[in-house]
């Protein structure tokens, strides 16, 4: 269990990998589509995807010439259970996790709940 937890937390420690997970919350994506928003090579993105896959956070599926990536929500379960053992964390709510990632990455239109500002004018 410790080895797989190490892989998950190590994968989540990198901001690029967290951003990739945020992209995959929306839908399955081809590797080239995952790479598009990042200013790095396809090879570098592929390495990040390999780390996420090894940690069990995503699945990669080859369909013809295209490799597709899919979020694997069960990959966070073991980490969630481990954190719950401290009595300080609740189970992972993937909707809340998506909101957190959107806020963390500064996605447009993602103000925290209850903090909508009035339009200027």
TrEMBL record:
A Pfam cross-reference name: HTH_20
Domain called HTH arsR-type: residue spans: 1-93
CDD domains: HTH_ARSR
SUPFAM superfamilies: Winged helix' DNA-binding domain
Organism domain of life: Bacteria
GO molecular function list: DNA-binding transcription factor activity
NCBIfam families: HTH_metalloreg (NF033788)
Protein name listed in UniProt: Metalloregulator ArsR/SmtB family transcription factor
InterPro entries to which the protein is assigned, alphabetical: ArsR-like_HTH, HTH_ArsR_DNA-bd_dom, WH-like_DNA-bd_sf, WH_DNA-bd_sf
